[in-house]
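User: Sequence in, structure out. Go.
Assistant: Echoing your sequence, followed by the structure tokens.
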Amino acid sequence: MIGRPKFVLASGSPRRLALINQGGIDPDALRPADIDETPKRGELPRACAVRLARMKAEAALAAVRLDDELKGAYILAADTVVAVGRRILPKAEMLDEAAQCLRLLSGRNHRVHSGVCLVTPKETFRQRHVETRVRFKRLSDEDIEAYLASGEWRGKAGGYAAQGIAGAFLVKIVGSYSNIVGLPLYETMALLGGEGYPIHFGWLNATAY
């Protein structure tokens, strides 16, 4: 698109793409980063989210450097971590993992941490951390079994998707809702605007998203 710099989203997540579209930005390319997302031993949730976002941004930058059409692009990466206290919950891939997450979250407070990393056209790295507190309702065995059967939990941090059926489990949210979906939109747009990206450019056509 003529009139704005290139923009690369370092993610293959449909949720992150939908959120950045909601902000009026249509990425020129998606460059998902294939990295090891295993938390380090004793790593705190905040540090984990920030580290993984940085790693994703670095991997995407390496790919962009090899693509003449994308050189000089803004690159945005993010990672979301769900934690109960210091315990980082997995991105559930197995049924028993998801069941364990749901039982742990039932009737309790937890925190959702996101690291956001922006690479500017000058290849400067800018990072933010955003934390949202969430309280789950007490889940019955029937709630858990039915949710597991839905399959919605697969690949989701903490074994649930707030934008889906699990939205009915959320008693209270303190902080950014978009953060628990996968990308803190206010902080992301503020970061982009602060680094010179024309965030208003796509707003005239925002109804198309």
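User: And one key feature?
Assistant: The radius of gyration is 17 Å.
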